[in-house]
Specification:
heterodimer; A: 87 residues; alpha+beta; Histidine-containing Protein, Chain: A; 3 helices; 4 strands; 24% strand; B: 560 residues; alpha/beta; Glucose Oxidase, domain 1; Enzyme I, Chain A, domain 2; TIM Barrel; 3 domains; eight-stranded mixed beta sheet; 14% strand; disordered C terminus; metal ion binding (chain B); cytoplasm (chain B); Phosphoenolpyruvate-protein phosphotransferase (chain B); transferase (chain B)
Chain lengths: 87, 560
């Protein structure tokens, strides 16, 4: 299983537009990706789950995925999360 | 059938009614008789169809609405929600009930988180209603979107509704609830849409009925006669012709200048305001810089926006209001305490004082933007109640490098002591919406007391007169920046009471300019006396209208 831990770069956290774009990227990858913040783990393709984690700027989250190309997919998603989409 | 409500502006419209559909009833918890697997298929199909429909609407809407709708589409497709729906179906629920409950559970979760997440709860409700409507084979509640122009009739409109409204097709808005400061009324003023709000019987109007909507009188005429239709058409044609007359500075018939300024809520509105003849900005609301964030923007971020604003109005006056949070526009980082009566709570300057660093940052950003641009910048504090608050704000603004600082008069206490308040500051600007709410003790956001929210009330006008008198005595400017200034007949009265400038939605500038040019300062003062001596808002309005029309008729006879 591939795994990446990153800290969120967007100034307003993973809400609104960044959350929507992130979910879109996860859904587009075709892989089942898990997102963990603290002790909560959920399906990263769930916008309601992502929003309800209340992820703020600077929070650390962990992404996990299995299967073909999991490393490449996680690299791409990690890059997304470490880019400030509110800038 | 005739309906009476409160007209917004002076427009007139004629067209067929379309009703905003009522929200769907809660799906019943009875079992359906089909198997759980069949219910799951139904639910999956409805969720997918709804997501697709929302995406199409998003592409059609474009802009900011597209992002909101794209997020809503993902909510309909959400895999976690889908699992929850399936679990509830297995437990014996129908697809409708399972969808309803699953969305409600997420909505409650988001609401409990508050702030931005809480606001998304409205989006979830909208998606939930659409999926349930799809399952039940009924039309989804929401803004009608026909391919012909129509008069939209609703209980009241929420921002989410109006964001999706195709304004080119909306001839007029008629609501049963909501007063002159409701979201519907504000939208109507901003976009110059004909509107009558708070007409109690509006929901009895059926789809397809032709109506004449007259905002001047607040009257909606259903199924008008041929004569009434042709009268409405000729009035509309005459007004369209008058609207193309050239634009000059606002002035009374005797040449007394009354600068006409724009109320703006973002930098984006600047070009439109100038095109409509604004001589500057009388109220620039700064909340838009703060509302979408959970922290205050930095000095540099603010300075950039203020510089854009001041650059658009080079050589003109721009009055910027310090952040006005609270009551109808709470900001979590300013005041997170729940209050029993937010309109009477820690809001306006009170909230800024409790967070002085935010006020200092804002004033510093304004001073820096002022130094770099050519506009004439004035700043003012919202919701000032006392002489002491006036001194505090004026001193702080000067200390941070601003040359002209004033206060908003929205609280009766400030109006009654206007002579002392104005002695300690550079100018006053009267916010008539809040002044009316506080004078008549009627919540301006509450439909049930909307009839109290009328700035024509002689008690409100007397307070305006106090401020006007103090301004004249001390040689300090007194502006009006509430919705009252957008009512042409009332604008003349306000000038008669001592207002030296008027600020309003840019769409109202042409009508107010035309009305001011019909009367002299002495006549305006006479109207003010007539209005002050009335017993009620309605009496004041009627008496001034009668005096104005008798004057106009006399003038016509004399010139013959």
């Amino acid at each position: 299983m591939a795994e990446r831990t990153v800290s969120i770069a967007s100034a307003h956290g993973l809400h609104a537009r960044p959350a929507s774009l992130f979910v879109q990227a996860v859904a587009g990858s075709g892989l089942a990706v898990e997102l963990t913040k603290g002790d909560k783990t959920l399906n990263a393709a769930s916008i309601l789950g992502v929003i309800s984690l209340g992820i703020e700027h600077g929070d650390e989250v962990t992404l996990r995925a299995e299967g073909d190309g999991a490393d490449a997919v996680l690299d791409e998603l990690a890059t997304f999360l470490t880019t400030d989409h509110d800038a | 059938m005739n309906l009476q409500g409160v007209g917004i502006g002076r427009g007139l419209a004629l067209g067929p009614v379309l009703r905003m559909p009522d929200p769907l009833p809660e799906p019943s918890d009875a079992s359906s008789g089909v198997t759980a697997d069949e219910e799951k298929v139904r639910a999956a199909g409805a969720l997918a169809a709804t997501a697709a429909d929302i995406r199409i609407r998003g592409q059609r809407a474009g802009g900011a609405a597209k992002d909101v709708l794209e997020a809503q589409a993902f909510m309909a497709e959400d895999p976690t929600l889908r699992d929850d729906v399936d679990t509830r179906i297995v437990a014996g629920k129908t697809a409708e009930r399972a969808v309803f409950e699953a969305f409600a559970a997420f909505r409650d979760l988001l609401t409990s988180m508050g702030g931005y997440m809480g606001e998304r709860a409205t989006d979830l409700n909208d998606v939930s209603q659409r999926v349930v409507a799809n399952l039940q084979g009924v039309s989804a509640p929401g803004v009608p979107n026909p391919d012909y122009p129509f008069v939209l009739v609703a209980r009241d409109l929420a921002p989410a509704d109006t964001a999706l409204l195709d304004l080119d097709k909306v001839l007029a808005l008629v609501t049963s609830d909501g007063g002159p400061t409701s979201h519907t009324a504000i939208l109507a003023r901003e976009k110059a849409i004909v509107a009558v709000v708070g007409a109690p019987d509006a929901l009895q109007l059926a789809d397809g009925v032709t109506v004449v909507v007259d905002a001047t009188t607040g009257l909606v005429t259903a199924s008008p006669t041929d004569d009434e239709i042709s009268a409405a058409r000729s009035t509309m044609a005459a007004r369209a012709a008058a609207a193309v007359t050239p634009v000059g500075p606002g002035a009374l018939a005797d040449g007394t200048l009354v600068p006409l300024l724009a109320n703006l809520g973002s930098v984006a509105g600047a070009a439109d305001a100038l095109a409509k003849g604004a001589e500057g900005v009388g109220l620039f609301r700064t909340e838009f810089l703060f509302l979408d964030s959970d922290r205050a923007p930095s000095v540099a971020e603010q300075q950039e926006k203020y510089t854009q604003l001041l650059t658009s109005f080079a050589g003109k006056k721009v009055v910027v209001r310090a952040l006005d949070a609270g009551a109808d526009k709470p900001l979590s980082f300013l005041n997170d305490e729940p209050e029993e009566n937010p309109a009477l709570g820690l809001r306006g300057l009170r909230a800024l004082r409790a967070n002085e660093s935010i006020l200092r940052d804002q004033l510093s950003a304004l001073a820096a933007a002022d130094a770099a641009t050519e506009a004439e910048l004035w700043v003012m504090a919202p919701m000032v109640s006392t002489v002491e608050e006036t001194r505090y704000f004026t001193t702080l603004a000067r200390e941070l490098g601003l040359t002209t600082a004033g206060v908003m008069v929205e609280v009766p206490a400030a109006a009654l002591l206007a002579d002392r308040i104005l002695a300690d500051t550079d100018f006053a600007s009267i916010g008539t919406n809040d002044l009316t709410q506080y004078t008549l003790a009627a919540d301006r956001l509450l439909g049930s007391v909307a009839s109290f929210q009328d700035p024509w009330h002689p008690a409100v006008l007397r307070l305006v007169g106090e401020v006007g008198r103090a301004g004249a005595l001390l040689g300090k400017p007194v502006g009006i920046c509430g919705e009252a200034a957008a009512d042409p007949a009332l604008a003349v009265v306000l000038v008669g009471l001592g207002a030296t400038s008027l600020s309003m939605s840019p769409a109202a500038l042409a009508d107010v300019r035309a009305e001011l040019s019909r009367f002299t300062l002495d006549q305006a003062k006479e109207f003010a006396e007539i209005a002050l001596s009335a017993n009620s808002a309605v009496e004041a309005r009627v008496a001034v209208a009668a005096a104005a029309s008798s004057l106009t008729n006399t003038t016509l006879t004399e010139s013959e």
